[in-house]
Protein 1
Amino acid sequence: GESVGLHLPTLSVQEGDNSIINCAYSNSASDYFIWYKQESGKGPQFIIDIRSNMDKRQGQRVTVLLNKTVKHLSLQIAATQPGDSAVYFCAETNGGGSRLTFGEGTQLTVNP
Amino acid sequence: EAGVAQSPRYKIIEKRQSVAFWCNPISGHATLYWYQQILGQGPKLLIQFQNNGVVDDSQLPKDRFSAERLKGVDSTLKIQPAKLEDSAVYLCASSSPPGLASRETQYFGPGTRLLVL
């Protein structure tokens, strides 16, 4: 079946560096993408979203890039902080409803 | 505002036993979701309610899993009988109808960690 997946299971960066987390999706009908952050022992927390009619969206210290040609999504975190250490999931859905399909997650570790 | 509440936070049972999880969504949120998250994987939707009606239960193993949302607010998810492979975190999420320029954002609870021995 169609799914959303991540290229790298783990990412380790130094505090203050920029982080880039990647995601590949296979459902060409997907029109809405979301990045979630999940800390240990907690539920996923919404970070940022993007619609398919956009290729870039910025938030506070985070930027999401969408390349529909190659079905690729990325999350950029500027000036990564220890509090950013968590598992990051991309999720996608299509206009037919609000069911989210999650990828398997990337564990981000920020070293002080 | 208060977030999504779930209980219990942890549960250990033996296989073939029954277990139930409870979820209280954010006040005013009409849509409620139950997800199963196996260790190392992303959450997988089990069932979605709109008020007290089921919208999507296509991925719910109905031979052993059941869920209800009788009054359109709280919800319970039950497993009977449990299997070893049911060990996972069970997440509840809720959302409200989107505005004109936005999509529904799902807010997740802390989850219930189930271990089946």
Protein 2
Amino acid sequence: GAGVSQSPRYKVAKRGQDVALRCDPISGHVSLFWYQQALGQGPEFLTYFQNEAQLDKSGLPSDRFFAERPEGSVSTLKIQRTQQEDSAVYLCASSLSRGTQANYGYTFGSGTRLTVV
Amino acid sequence: TQLLEQSPQFLSIQEGENLTVYCNSSSVFSSLQWYRQEPGEGPVLLVTVVTGGEVKKLKRLTFQFGDARKDSSLHITAAQPGDTGLYLCAGAGITSGTYKYIFGTGTRLKVLA
């Protein structure tokens, strides 16, 4: 596609519910990133894929968070047993470049705003 | 852990005023990017600075990379309401022991008409 597409745009989950957030990167982009952004703050790194390989998941806050990119294109971020502290905007970004150097920046989707009640 | 600290955190100014946003780190970056983010949208890349001392201009926005490549600034001349948004610097560096792309703490700018 022309840009990075994320769905849903908004998600309200009851505490304890599982959620799945989808990211469609730009076609042909090798690298895909997930970030978590609290209101008014800068995005915080969650995880990084190069094609289908998850090369860095050091930012995932707990084992309730899981991400996959099985065919090297679409990615899903899954959060199990959601907690109120999981409420945030989840951003996906993709890049034509390999690795995290990103001298030319990343292209971001519009994000999914998750609210856990 | 490598951090990017931005200042000020919040800025509210009148249309036509000038302003400068700062992005500082104790570590060297090979490049830094500046993004602007509007409510409900993802960050949009404005510029990349690569060379120490480099100055880039984008209409009324002037970006500078420090000589030592540890800091950067964004200067806006004659701010307009359309400049309102969250400004973020970002770069690749070491955080929590691994090399990753990190964002600054953000500067929220509001330009009043």
